[in-house]
């Protein structure tokens, strides 16, 4: 399993990708954490189709996580990343 940690608007985004991604099954994990503490949200993607490369999977997961952060900062989802 490949692990990558990126930052976005003060949040740490940890991406865990398996060596093989199978469509229709949950594969990998994304965890979003505020930089001030270790509490955050986690989700496991269910791929409708397999990404062509692990880099494509990593980019997709990061973009999805960044969208969650943006929506939360705008008050959109009601997911409080500081307390969930």
List the helices and strands and how they pair.
Elements: E1 2-8, E2 11-17, E3 29-34, E4 40-43, H1 54-73
Antiparallel strand pairs: 1-2, 2-3, 3-4
Number of helices: 1
> Helical content, roughly?
10-25%
Proportion of residues in extended strands: 25-35%
Instruction: Order the strands across the largest sheet as they lie in space.
Output: 1-2-3-4
The strand count comes to 4
Going by helix content, strand content and strand pairing, the class is alpha+beta
Average the pLDDT over all residues and give the rounded result: 78
Distance between the termini: 25 Å
Rg, Cα atoms, Å: 13 Å
Order of helices and strands: EEEEH
Question: Low-confidence parts lasting 5 or more residues at pLDDT below 50?
Answer: none
Shape: globular
Main sheet?
4 strands, antiparallel
